[in-house]
Amino acid sequence: MAVLANVALTNTFDTWRLRTNALLTRVNQFTINESALYANTLTANVRFVSLGSTKLGSSGSNRTIINGLLSANGNLNVAGNTTISGILNVNGGINLGDATTDLLTITGRASIGTNLTVGGNTTSNKFVVTSSITGSSANATFNKATVTSSLTVSGNTNIGGAGKVANAQGWFGVDGRQSISTNLFVGGNTSTSKATVTNLLTVSGNTVLGGAGKTTNATGWLGVNGRATVSTNLFVGGNTTLNGTTVDKSNALSQTLTDGATINWDTALGRVATVTLGGNRTMAKPTNLKVGTYILRVYQDGSGSRTITWNSAFKWTAQTAPVLTTTGNAMDVITFFSDGNLLYGSYLPDMR
């Protein structure tokens, strides 16, 4: 739209009349036809519709305020700070320009047809993205977020409602239900009311599952208030709390101890141990003891007549250590209960 020429004091009255009518015609075009409007502020009850791409502001210092509806059929480019109090509907993508200075604030609902790329903070009541959300830094907060394709977040992400994603790195909190068909990798804390992972769940920090959780791998703190089904391996490096019924169908970890003048037993490598005596030996205090039951199978070699001198950590009935079966290749079974420091033993001789 061409700029109207100024009138001078030397112009005739008829020129003034013509220029004034032209100005009124331009104003009426905005009022009647809702043509393009260039302004710093759109006040309440104003509907702003762009049939193509829309650019708001021109630099980080400019600010555009829209209290009504902003609808862009193309891409929305934000070069300055923009505040939208109503509904934002973009059929294309949103580009926030310089992420270090530009800020897009949406207090209503935002719908993006393709990609949303955010270099800084993003806050939304409800966010729907058909393709993908990419956050390169800082925090992203959504009351409800739906991502059809992928969600990539390098910083913290909080989702107050239901969130469905394929991959998330950072802090991921879901108060509703979370369903992931492939892999979920979380570098920090994960809190879910209900989580189902078909393939693999890898957690390097704390994990809290409020409802049913199916996982194959978790390192850190795993709390399950409901039911947990693990089809392959579950690795827990910290505390584990199970409030329901536990069914153990696993085999106990066992090990063969190295024979020597002093026999050492690292119970972290197996609470069931076997040793074959090649001479008279001393049994050192086991390391990494926990509260629980331990079993030691003692074999004589072919010569037999081998004995064990026990460390003071081993306690026996009436302070009397067992007398081993001395026949060649004989086997005795000694069972211990440990309080985490001492071991209290009972003896089954010459088991065949």
Structure description:
The protein has two domains: 41-242; 254-348, Sandwich (Jelly Rolls). It has one helix at residues 13-33, and strands spanning 41-42, 47-50, 54-56, 63-66, 69-72, 76-78, 81-84, 88-90, 94-95, 104-106, 109-112, 115-118, 122-124, 126-129, 132-135, 140-142, 145-147, 150-153, 156-159, 171-180, 183-186, 190-197, 200-203, 207-209, 213-214, 222-224, 228-229, 240-242, 254-256, 262-263, 272-277, 281-283, 291-300, 308-310, 314-315, 331-339, 343-348. It is rod-shaped and about 135 Å long. Strands 13, 16, 19, 20, 22, 24, 25, 26, 27 and 28 form a ten-stranded parallel β-sheet that branches. It has a six-stranded parallel β-sheet with strand order 2-5-8-11-14-17, with no helix packed on it. Strands 3-6-9-12-15-18 form a six-stranded parallel β-sheet, with no helix packed on it. With 352 residues, it is mainly beta. 6% of the residues lie in helices and 42% in strands.
